[in-house]
Each structure stands twice: as C-alpha cells, then as structure tokens.
Amino acid sequence: MFYSAAAGLRPKHKEIQIMSASMEAVPATSHRGESASRAAAVRLRLTRRGRVVVGVLATLLVVAVLGIVAAIGSSQAVASPEPGSAEFSYVVVQSGSSLWEIAHEIDPSMDPRDLVAEIVRLNQLDGSGVQAGQPIALPLRYADAPIAVSASELGLGGVIEAVTRTPSKLGW
C-alpha cells in the first residue's frame, strides 16, 4: 500500500517492515541450477514490433545478398566493332500512301498506332509524314511481308545508311 506524504498519512512502522520484507529479491534457481537473473539475461524476449524489425532486417539482408549474387553472376554485354548481320527489309512509299496504310498492310491484326510508332522510331523520323519514293525500314519481324523489299534490291548499302538517312544515299 502506498501513502502520500502530502496527504499527511504516514504508515505505521510495522507496515513498513512487512512491506520491505516482501519486496526483497529472493534468488530463484532454474532446473539447471542457474540463477534466474542469469537465465533472464541470456534469454531474449522480443515484442511484436521487435519481431517485425528483425524480420524486415533479415529480409533486407537476403535481398541484398541476392542482388549482389545476381550482379556478380550475370553475364555482361560485350560490344563488338563488327556490324550485326541483321538486314532490314524496306517499303517504298507510294504516292498518296501514309504510314498508317503501310502498317495496316504489313500486319492487319496489329494496332496500326503501335506499328506506326515503331516504324517512326526505327527510321528516326520526326513525325508520321512520309514522301512518295521514300524507303522506310521495317521491323525485322516483318522481313517476310509481301510488300517488303530487301536493301540490295533498293540499292541501299545496308543498315547503317538507312538509319542515318542522308539524302544523297537514299536518293531524295
């Protein structure tokens, strides 16, 4: 029982002795003969938050180790000075044709917007406008399209000349 000095209550001397006697620490022993304080110092008790923190730290450690292993074990890309062996097929733009019509003719099952965007990116065009007689490189997967023409048939020297689009080489 606790007493407040401000309230003017004072415990009797006998109660203090009983209280102090009951609060004394009695060393308890575990089944191995160790003291309870030593067993408590060895045993670690984690709260729920502590378990979450330990779990997150362990997860981060595993992710970091896997990232390092993946970075070390992955093969590196090696550039070679030799040009690639892939040769693009081309379509020569006819009078009144647009990239939309060409895309629809190459692959009617595909959304023409996606194919037009891919052709614009491949040919490094400023927009979707094309001129009659202009050769347009097609993505490699459409090399067998019925309207596709090889670079040698057009008299183009290959991939690099078509991508750089210098007017003297393309005949504009």
State the end-to-end CA separation.
104 Å
Portion in strands: 5-15%
Helices and strands: which structural class? mainly alpha
The number of strands is 3
Count of runs of 4 or more consecutive helical residues:
8
The SSE string, one letter per element, is HHHEHHEEHHH
Shape: elongated
Main sheet attributes: strand count, strand direction, barrel closure: 3 strands, antiparallel
The helix content is: 40-55%
- Computed Rg: 41 Å
Topology at a glance:
Layout: H1 13-22, H2 36-42, H3 48-73, E1 89-92, H4 99-106, H5 112-123, E2 135-137, E3 149-150, H6 151-154, H7 159-164, H8 167-170
Antiparallel strand pairs: 1-2, 1-3
Helix pairs in contact: 4-5
What does this structure look like?
There is one protein chain. This protein has 172 residues and is mostly helical. The chain has a domain of 82 residues. The chain contains eight helices and three strands. Helix 4 packs across helix 5.
List keywords for this structure.
5% strand, disordered C terminus, 172 residues, 3 strands, three-stranded antiparallel sheet, elongated
Outline of this structure?
The protein has helices spanning 13-22, 36-42, 48-73, 99-106, 112-123, 151-154, 159-164, 167-170; strands at residues 89-92, 135-137, 149-150. With 172 residues, it is mostly helical.
